[in-house]
């Protein structure tokens, strides 16, 4: 059962998240919350507006997304 995204860990671990894209399509992705400090430590030009949930939308492209919920391993089996 999906859990509210507000309860998800924001410590850099990768989680399964659920989000709706701009076309209204529901998506499930592996994503990672990246703080501004974590982004800056990795190098490059980042600021506070880049902080958030990041997921690969294809094999080469990462995008900041706005998930609404997340699932822990095994959650799907209990539905």
Write structural notes for this entry.
The protein is mainly β. It is built from one helix and six strands. It has one helix spanning 36-42, and strands spanning 3-4, 14-20, 26-34, 52-56, 62-65, 69-71. It has a six-stranded antiparallel sheet with strand order 1-6-2-3-4-5. Strand 4 (52-56) and strand 5 form a beta hairpin. The longest helix has 7 residues, at 36-42. The mean pLDDT is 90.
Tally of structural domains: 1
For the largest beta-sheet, the strand count, sense and barrel status come to: 6 strands, antiparallel
C-alpha termini separation? 6 Å
Poorly predicted runs are none
Report the structural category: mainly beta
Query: How much strand?
Result: 35-45%
Mean pLDDT: 90
Please write the string of helix (H) and strand (E) elements.
Answer: EEEHEEE
Helix content: under 10%
Tally of separate helices: 1
Silhouette = globular
Number of strands: 6
Q: Using only CA atoms, what is the Rg? A: 13 Å
Please list the strands of the largest sheet in the order they lie side by side: 1-6-2-3-4-5
Offer a few descriptive terms.
79 residues, 9% helix, 38% strand, globular, mainly beta, 1 helix
């Amino acid at each position: 059962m999906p859990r509210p995204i507000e309860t998800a860990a924001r410590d850099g671990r990768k989680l399964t998240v659920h989000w709706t894209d701009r076309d209204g399509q529901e998506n499930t992705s592996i994503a990672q919350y990246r703080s501004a400090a974590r982004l800056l430590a990795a190098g490059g030009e980042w600021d506070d507006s880049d902080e958030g949930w990041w997921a690969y939308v294809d094999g080469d492209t990462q995008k900041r997304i706005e998930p609404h919920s997340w699932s822990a391993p095994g959650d799907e089996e209990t539905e």
